[in-house]
Amino acid sequence: MRRSLGSAWQRQKTSIAWPDKLRHAPADPRHRKCIIPGMDATRTPPHLSMKLHQIRYLVALAECGSVRAAARTLGVTQAAVTQGLRELEEAHRLPLFQRHSSGMVLTAAGQVLLRHAQLVTGQLEQAEAEMAALRDPQAHIRLSVAVTPWIAHSLLPPVLASFRAELPQVRLELFEGLSAVALPRLREGSIDLLIGRVPTGSAAQDLHATPLFRYEAAVVARTGHPLVQARSLHELHDCDWLLNYTPSEESAIFEKLFLRHGIAVPTRRIHLVHSASLLLHLVAHSDMVSFCPWPLIETEGPHGRIAPLRLQEPFEPHTAGVLQRGHGPLPFAAQRFVAHLLQQVHACQHTADPQLQRVFRSIDVLD
Hints:
The chain has helices spanning 52-64, 67-74, 78-92, 108-135, 149-154, 156-166, 179-188, 250-257, 276-284, 294-300, 332-348, 354-361, and strands at 97-100, 103-106, 141-147, 170-176, 193-197, 207-215, 217-222, 241-243, 270-272, 289-293, 306-308, 318-325, 363-365. By secondary structure, it is of the alpha/beta class. A hairpin with a 2-residue loop joins strand 1 (97-100) and strand 2 (103-106).
């Protein structure tokens, strides 16, 4: 196994009920892109110039669910929010919202625009925080990080200690970095960094990853499970599975875990769990099985609660690393967090701690 990190880090309903003259045109195929009556859908749209207040109105509406609540949150009038949202629909010539009895819901186009709007507002908040820190070195800066469980259990404590010693003014917000929860938060801008499994295919869209580790995974069951001696996936056909993945990862997970081994996907026996502690607890106290990273097994296995099954079927290794939105530079606090993480990776390869030794024997540190 390689033990050097090298320079890894460097490398259908109706839209908003606007006034009559601004209602959407009928769903005539000739006017599918036409939102305002009389607008030529075939004409090239003018240059779009979204205003910051419109972007904030969109984000607030998505978070609050209604124009009234969004206006109250932002401290503006309902008329101002309605006008700003109407201008967004008018400019983009697409229905961005649907009105329901429970409030406003974004359309597919609205969800796409929201994703970009959240990134914009998140970057602005980060810029404001960094400017505040320059004005007042004692001012608090927020850094939000999601960390996959096996890294949190092994490397995170010393990383936090050294990071806090350098930047005591940074207020950390830490999340469990399971993919199904952390990846959407990373994309929408509510977390700054994800230290965890690197997704593949379409699930990696819009993300930049710096790989740090490669590791394998294994099927696990509770100690004393009736099938703990199973040697093939085929013997587990009647078991319920506890898994964690994003919707875009589902087909790849099913292919890796079942289909390539000639096993039909047991759809009705697969349950999603978005907490590592809950998943491990359920496996340890039931006859359900799961698919876990070997380094996580090394942090949990010594407690005698779960055991890896020695199956004949091979599974492709996974990669873990640092994930961020896009390819731009990280905020200073995030850069320093990553630097402290890399320092601990180097230090822990020569540790005398038995648990860390087991973890590092189960992974490859990438050059």
